[in-house]
Amino acid sequence: MVTILDGKKCSEKRLELLREEIEDSGLYPRLATVIVGNDPASQMYVRMKHRACEQVGIGSVGIELPSGATTESILDAVRRLNADSDINGILVQLPLPKGVDTERIIDAISPAKDVDGYHPENMGLLFSGKPRFSSCTPTGIMTLLAEYKIPVAGKRAVIAGRSIDVGRPMAALLLNADATVTICHSRTKDIAEELKRADILISAVGKAHFITPGMVKPGAVVIDVGINQLDGKLVGDVDFAAVSTVASAITPVPGGVGPMTIATLMENTYRAAKEQACGSAG
Ligand code: NAD
């Protein structure tokens, strides 16, 4: 029998614990989101993040810039938020419109407020085994594995996808947890062969039904990060029904990794607020 890794339930539990912790702390953390343009998926993700803030007692500020916003104008908004002592965490919703220099924007976010963990300083800390803010999706996946007591140390983990928001930080987190890690990507030769060796398989490719049962070792744990539209329905990268017959545990889409990403963002924002409060207290 396959175990369904219920990210929705786990995230609700984490959010409730966090709500209590924030209430007891006497702090009022604040998250600023920056969204550029009117991509419906990005707007929906930002709305969900604001809703989660409300649920746990984090204040949120939404900066909305038009789709024609220049790199300089986005940088201006980020610099203003960096300088605003009322803001503890800054999240720039990706992807940014074509023509915007995303790397410059990420590099401009104060590392102490970079609750998404994309800044090179935070990435470097993560890869050196001393994470401060590690990016929300992979961190949420590690939390979900821990919740279900899935051992990671000594296991062979194979990741499909090498993006800075998922694949790369996922590899660092798994390595920090003593897994043996392989990262596959669009130029990997015979990806099925690589994936088939995984005890823990993580797919972050963005292609519906990319992972088929023939790519999965019997008994593997399968984590589906992908969010895709197929015939008007939201699906992951994994052919869920077919792979469920082979895997020992699997995340559904929706209700798997997505809610864990949001819970982790809330946890990172609270952590930023605590660290900034300690810093300002000397
Ligand atoms: P991305 O486009 O930045 O990266 C995709 C990766 O897939 C690349 O590294 C590429 O090399 C690899 N790839 C593409 N085609 C491949 C192939 N044929 N074989 C092997 N590798 C291939 O995307 P991303 O930001 O990492 O997101 C990936 C997916 O995860 C998307 O569907 C995205 O919507 C979703 N996502 C979900 C969450 C969540 O919270 N659930 C968070 C972030 C991203």
Outline type: globular
Low-confidence stretches: none
Q: Name the structural class.
A: alpha/beta
* Rg value: 19 Å
Number of helices: 10
Bound molecules: nicotinamide-adenine-dinucleotide
Summarize the amount of helix as a percent range: 40-55%
- Let me know the average pLDDT: 97
- Summarize the biggest pleated sheet: 6 strands, parallel
* N-to-C series of helices and strands: EHEHEHEHHHEHEHEEEEHEH
Q: Give the termini distance in whole angstroms.
A: 54 Å
Describe this structure as you would to a colleague:
The structure is a single chain. This protein has about 280 residues and is of the alpha/beta class. The chain has ten helices and eleven strands. It has helices at about 5-25, 40-55, 70-85, 100-110, 120-125, 135-145, 165-175, 190-195, 240-245, 255-280; strands at about 5, 30-35, 60-65, 90, 155-160, 180-185, 200-205, 220-225, 230, 235, 250. The strands form three sheets. Strands 1-11-8-7-5-6 form a six-stranded parallel beta sheet. Helix 1 (about 5-25) packs parallel to helix 10 (about 255-280). The protein is globular and about 50 Å long. The termini are far apart. Nicotinamide-adenine-dinucleotide (NAD) binds near residues 184 and 225.
